[in-house]
Amino acid sequence: MSWTALGSALERTLGLIVLTYIGALALGIVLAVFRISPVPPLRAAATAYVTIFRNVPLLVLLVLFTFGLPNVGLLIPLFYNAALAMALYWAAFICEVVRSGVRTVPRGQIEAARALGLTFGQSLTRVVLPQALRSMVQPLANIFIGSALSTALAAAAGVTELTFWYQQQANLGGQPLTAFAVVTAIYVAITLTAGLVAGRVERKVAILR
To answer: What is the DSSP code string of 141-187?
Structure first.
C-alpha cells in the first residue's frame, strides 16, 4: 500500500474541501442577498438558480462539467473543475440557510435600521447578518460536513483524492480492506472535527446573545 500516494490524495481532498466550501459560502451569501433584495430581477434570478441546482444530482453536475466544459473550449484542470462544480452546487443550499437565518431576525430590528437612515446593504451587514449568524452556525456546519463527504464523488471525475486512491489500491489488490479502513477513518475524523468546532462556535455565539 502506497503511503506516499495516500498523503497526496489526502492533500487534494483537503484542498478540495476548502475550495468547495469557501466558494460555496461566498456565492451562497451573494445569492441569499439577491433572494431578499427589493429588486425583482435579482430575486427571480437567485430563485431560479437555487431551484435548478438543488434539483440536479451532484454526480450529474460533476460529469457535465468534466465532459461538457471542454466541448465549449473551457479547459480546466480536473481538480479545479470538480471544486467549481461542487461550489456551485452547495451554494444553493447555503443560500437557503442564510435566507432562513435572516428571517429569524425580528422585523423591528430591520425597521429600526431603516429609521436610522441605513441603506439596504448597511442594514444587512451591520444589523441583520450578525444576528442571523447565531441561528446559522449548525446548519452551515452540516453543509460543510455534507460537502466534505461529497468530495468522494470527485473520483468519478478523475480527481486523485482519497476515494480514487482507495479504488487504485483495490484494483491493484494492495490490501483493499486496510485502505478502506484508512479512508473511512480520515473522513470520520474530518466530520467529527467539523462537528466539534461548530459546537464550540455555537456555544460561544449563544453566550453573546
So the answer is: HHHHHHHHHHGGGGGGGT--SHHHHHHHHHHHTS-HHHHHHHHHHHH
CA distance 88 to 170: 31
CA dist 3 to 55, 169, 174, 183, Å? 38, 11, 11, 12
Lowest-confidence segment of 14-18, 91-95, 130-134 by average pLDDT: 130-134
Structural domain including 82 reads 3-207
**Measured distance between the N- and C-terminal CA atoms of the chain, rounded to whole angstroms:** 51
Calculate ∠ Cα 102-104-105, nearest 5°. 75
User: How many domains does the chain contain in total?
Assistant: 1
Three-state DSSP class for 37?
coil
Q: What is the pTM of this model?
A: 0.86
CATH number of the domain that residue 134 is part of:
1.10.3720.10
